[in-house]
């Protein structure tokens, strides 16, 4: 089996006060992505920050980050339209104007820690249609069982093109707890042919990444999901976390997917076809 590794270097919540290795400027993010690519990642999950480290959907910052990444390596860019809890949905949705090959699609609103993550149904359907028409691959982030049902309704309405790509997110307060039982429940319900990975937030990251790989899933690694490499040991960037995911995959007998193979797996066009 070939495993797709995604590097997620920044995320919407942590700052350098939480981990000084967290990249927040365009150059820092691009450097972290390149290092993740060199370690084995084929996909980069990108969150944007402004000059004050706050989550932003600023298109100019997004273009700067995408260009900086492209100058450094050929990794597939997956732009987060989740951005941050305080950024309006319409501003977040405009990030697909940057025409990344991939972008997140969050199907439902939910409580998220002490805040609210708002994804109105009509806005989600419109964004799904715009991504379909633009040839942008949605990464379907599902935080609870009903989120999967919402994605399947979008598919049945013709708004999603198979193979569907899911990220099963576990450990966010307001969503599913980070347990093996919850992961198994979700994996059993995925549609045939789906491409998926587990995103385990915090302490359970290594354990559930390993279980997901053993079940035939892919893996995401980076400071967005955990700031620590081990108990009390801050990760010195996302690269050690990517390297750990690569080791786990190889110890299970898997191969690490190249960018070209990731394109094939996800049904993305080659650069010559774009």
Automatic annotation (TrEMBL):
This is 3-keto-5-aminohexanoate cleavage protein. It comes from Mycolicibacterium goodii. Transmembrane segments: none annotated. Keywords: Metal-binding, Transferase, Zinc. Its cofactor is Zn(2+). GO terms for molecular function: 3-keto-5-aminohexanoate cleavage activity; metal ion binding.
């Amino acid at each position: 089996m070939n495993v797709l590794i995604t590097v997620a270097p920044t995320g919407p919540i942590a700052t350098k006060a939480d981990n000084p290795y967290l990249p927040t400027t365009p150059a820092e993010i691009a450097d972290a992505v390149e290092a993740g690519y060199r370690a084995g990642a084929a996909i980069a999950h990108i969150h944007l920050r402004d000059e004050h480290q706050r989550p932003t959907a600023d298109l100019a910052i997004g273009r700067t980050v995408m260009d900086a990444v492209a100058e450094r390596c050929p990794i597939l860019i997956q732009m987060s339209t989740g951005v941050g809890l305080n950024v309006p949905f319409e501003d977040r949705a405009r990030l697909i104007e940057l025409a990344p090959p991939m972008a997140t699609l969050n199907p439902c609103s939910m409580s998220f820690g002490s805040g609210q993550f708002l994804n109105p149904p009509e806005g989600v359907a419109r964004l799904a249609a715009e991504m379909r028409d633009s040839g942008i691959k949605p990464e379907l982030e599902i935080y609870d069982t009903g989120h999967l049902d919402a994605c399947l309704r979008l598919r049945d309405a013709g708004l999603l093109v198979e193979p569907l790509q899911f990220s099963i997110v576990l450990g966010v307060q307001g969503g599913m707890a980070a347990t093996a039982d919850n992961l198994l429940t979700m994996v059993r319900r995925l549609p045939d042919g789906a491409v998926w990975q587990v995103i385990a937030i915090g302490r359970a990251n290594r354990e559930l990444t390993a279980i997901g790989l053993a079940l035939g899933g892919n893996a995401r690694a980076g400071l967005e999901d955990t700031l620590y490499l081990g108990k009390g040991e801050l990760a010195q960037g996302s690269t050690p976390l990517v390297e750990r995911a690569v080791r786990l995959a190889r110890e299970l007998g898997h191969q690490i997917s190249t960018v070209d193979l990731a394109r094939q797996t996800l049904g993305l066009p080659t650069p010559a076809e774009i």
